[in-house]
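User: Predict the complex.
Assistant: Input components as received:
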Amino acid sequence: MSQLANNAQFIDESEARPLLLVGNPNVGKSLLFTRLTNRYVTVSNYPGTTVEMTTATAMIGDERRSIIDTPGINSLLPQSQDEIVARDLLLREPNIDVMQVGDIANLRRTLLLTLQLSEYNVPFVVALNMADELRSVDDGPDVTALSRAIGVPVVSVSALRGWNISKLKKDLARATQATMRVTYPAAIEAGVTAIQALLKPELACRGIALAILAGDVTLKPFLRESCPANVLEQLDDLRAIAQRGLARPISVLISHCRVAAIDELLTSLRQSSAFREDGLRDRIGRICMHPIYGIPILIGALALAWLLVGKIGAGTLVDLMQRQVFERFINPWTIRGIDAIAPFPHHHVIADGVLTSAYSGHAVSVAGRFAQTAHDLFVGPYGVVTMAITYAIAIVLPVVITFFTFFGLLEDSGYLPRLAVILNRGFRKIGLNGKAVLPMVLGLGCDTMATLTTRILDSKKEAAIVTLLLALGVPCSAQLGVILAMLAPLGLWATLIWVGVTLFTIMLAGWAASRVMPGEPGDFVLEIPPMRVPRLSNIIIKVAARTEWYLKEAVPLFIVGTLLLYVLDATGALKFVQRALGPLIIGGLGLPAEATNAFVIGFLRRDYGAAGLYAMQRAGHLNPNQVVIALTVITLFIPCIANLLVMLKERGARMGWAIAGFIIVYSFGIGALMNVTFRFFGVSL
Amino acid sequence: MRDGEYLECPMCGTDFAGAGCHSSCPLSRGCEMTRCPRCGYEFVGGGRIAGLLTKLFRRGTHDSRSNG
């Protein structure tokens, strides 16, 4: 008995054939489900998983049928538990009909799933939802022609407005197996035929055979239940034989053939009607990824980042927080409070009418020394309040909030995955393997996590190179925000130098990677969701979530870094460190000795180091040349302590430290080279 | 993130529930990051303030979204 049928929560076996709702994410499946069903809905997890399924009943024709709403999926070659569950339902329940719900304005995406359903020999109908979003009926596809091409009923509906729901219910009774077919390369077709001959007749569909050939590991548990061991071995052999005759991975070839077949179908549909599949959103989406037209859009996005982060965040908001809130209220109040609680003979410096954390005088008695220690711990030059909290809340927070707003706009508009495509193109040009590109793109979210994804790479060498590339040249979103904020007041040339050196580093490391891991550079596969207008409420929620996360993760490390500096200062070790690093910081990079502190705390989090440099920049302790040098070094520096730990864990202590050592030497080496070059050519930014 | 709450990956558009931060990350305990099971993109899935704001924005609207 099937797993589905075993679960009484989903299906009442006394009822007629259940109906499974399948479709891409965000196509209005749940709304259509609500339109079709009554108000008695059951929500439960699919057995053994956390995947939530919603079930209800509906009168379809003369029959009361169970309708099961499944999570949005993009493919029946599963890459998530949601997709495994949806695919397993198709495999394990022979007596089921499917209603595929698609977005009428994104037909290409819909039909890619239609094609896969057709290969599973499952009876289905297609409901093209969101018909109300079309400007006119002529903008939609000719559903009769489409129905003829697929071989199943196709209905255009609007779940939102209730259009064509009764017609859809009628057509659900006519669910049938599709007739559309794709012809794959001969080696794959031969493999499909051979696999179908080995499988039991009820399993011998093209969908399962293709999944086996594509190396779908999620299918293994099902195959082990359904086939004897000798058949499983033969299936592996057939897959190996098919792959031997092909230059590219079978999964990639299958994907390419499906896309080509759908494109051909869409072309013929355009010729047979006034239908234009490419709506405005699709056209904008394609322009964003265009090799030439995409560049002005990219520049526009960067200009928006500069305006939001550089001008509003780093300019107006940091001024407000640092000068007005912290320097006028929070820090003076805290200093006076600590002075009252822990008094000892000292005088605070008042600069421009503002009470600062710097002071003269010292304790002479034992009690006074305790008081001075408590004082310095909170409001000294390396005090938790006057340094850690001030940096975190007054300097970094306004910057990251504005950057998170910008990043939220990128994500919610659908531009981020298109940016990934542009980046992929750049990486391909330097010969980087497609598989190595994904961790680089993911690094924009979190470098540490992206380092973990290097596990997908085939060899230790590849993983080491990409780990290095990630740590060197891909700042995470929060760090990128602080770096952009520092660049904002410097002007175009300084920005170009920083961008140039960072890109040069990525290209150099990428070139090295391409020597170590040559091969097909095009295996970067990413589902591209449609473009859309970002919702303000969604952006506000995202910014709040990210800011809360940032405060939880970064502030404790800021405090640890400050305590480290405090201990080093109190024990006199900081002067020793500054003297020891003097030749490098002062001589090599041409920075003041005080910049050493920024690099010390930069070990914990690159953005904390950048915040220290930013504070120096705002205080006028760094000239523009020094800012660019310091910023480049901190950009190329190890991202954070978590990243260092993951490098050691994933690559082993020896390789991990070797990578960390290289990064430190390289970043300071590049900084020193920039300093020498600026001096030699008399560059003054 | 809260159990059963569906999130949409900003990178590939996949809706998913039940995923958390990468457990191998040394800072994963208590981390609000959520990893898309499809493309691996990691993003902040929730938090107290975000939860309150979500409730606030959804108040008065019938947001019955569950699966897509």
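Residues 34 and 45 of chain B are 5 Å apart (CA to CA).
Let me know if you want any component modeled separately.
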